[in-house]
Amino acid sequence: xxxxxxxGLLVGSFxxxxxTKGIASWVEYCIKQxxxxxxVKIYTPVKPINILPECINPVAPLAVISPDDYVNPxxxxxxxxxxxxxxxxxxxxxxxxxxxxxxxxxxxxLFNEFGGKPGTxxxxxxxxxxxxxxxxxxxxxxxxxxxxxxxxxxxxxxYITGRDRIAETFSPEKLxxxxxxxxxxxxxxxxxxxx
Length: 195
Fold this sequence. Notes:
5 strands; 35% helix
């Protein structure tokens, strides 16, 4: 019996007024289309494990070999969650020419759990998200994630400074509401098919 591949969808922002939740829903939909035999597990800095208030482990994460070796039980759970994933899709908006601080916290608590597994990166901003993409690629490589060609893209300014938002629950019909996603849809599915 073959086990289902687990793809961890690490979502680096949970701003209530932002577009990340909608982007994550779209990416989850595309993962299910591109990798139908996979299970998608979604992680934000606060769900299903709230790691934000937790102190960094007293031992450098680089020196921690097993998830069971973390002192903090919350970080131990986070380490087990990341370890069980076979691949990663990492999503973040670009904030101030970089990836989100929340995403950095998700990484700073761990190290070895990511190593040797494939991952793709998705960044976005009104300016294209390229700065966040480059920095995130460096970070992912440092953590031993085997990078698969990801993508960065622009979202319309009205989705950032106006009232428009990407639908938080994605369905194929939503592509008509968010036509810029329609243009990106095939490109995203192609990248995800390599996980």
